[in-house]
Write a structure and sequence with these properties.
β2 and β3 form a beta hairpin. α3 packs across α4 and α5 runs parallel beside α6. The protein has a five-stranded mixed β-sheet, sandwiched between helices. The protein is an alpha/beta fold. It has six helices and five strands, in the order βββαααβαβαα.
């Protein structure tokens, strides 16, 4: 019998738009089952990649977020240490991990690149579930008009969205579980 899925709500913070030339500064994952049970979290602040540098536009944005910047630069770990620990954490969860992100394309790109670079493989394989696309399907809306401010308020907890990776992973995981809970009303 196959293990059930476990949804890994993940948020990353970076100093640029793509991994390699730029670094993932911080990431966090919150592991939820569909019933909104939190099975654990993983978070790490990473040292920057050798030779990488911050993108000017991203760094200008960080200048507007001093508290989040301070949070993602505290207690930095070498990615060569943090990513194997993350992979071990994922593999120890009570289910098959499904990467969930908002937007998945951005967050997954960094996590996948770092997992391959520092561990050689990804427990997620090469796929991710995008919350915005899922909401679009549930709501029957156009992709570009499907944003958090147009989603049903009942889907949201009072969790903060602070640009601190763990806060955002928890907030988005709760939102995703609310979407899963609501899917029955949209599929009738």
């Amino acid at each position: 019998m196959a293990r059930p899925e476990i949804y890994i709500s993940t948020d990353i913070e970076s100093d640029g738009p793509i991994p390699g030339p730029h670094s993932m500064l911080s990431f966090a994952s919150a592991a939820f089952t569909a019933d909104k049970t939190l099975h654990g979290t993983f978070t790490a602040n990473l040292s920057t990649l050798p030779g990488a540098q911050g993108h000017p536009e991203t760094m200008a944005w960080w200048d507007t977020q001093p508290q989040a910047w301070a949070a993602c630069r505290a207690g930095q770990q070498d990615p060569a240490v943090a990513m194997p620990a993350y992979r071990t954490w994922l593999e120890g969860l009570p289910g098959r991990p499904v990467f969930v992100g908002y937007p998945a394309a951005f967050d997954f790109m960094f996590v996948y690149w770092y997992l391959i670079r520092f561990t050689g493989s990804s427990p997620f394989s090469h796929s991710a579930l995008d919350m915005k696309s899922y909401a679009m399907a549930l709501l029957g809306t156009d992709f570009r008009s499907t944003v958090k401010r147009t989603m049903p308020r009942a889907w949201f907890d009072r969790s903060p969205h602070s640009h601190v990776a763990l806060d955002d992973a928890l907030e988005q995981g709760a939102l995703f579980c609310a979407m899963l809970d609501a899917r029955g009303q949209f599929l009738q």
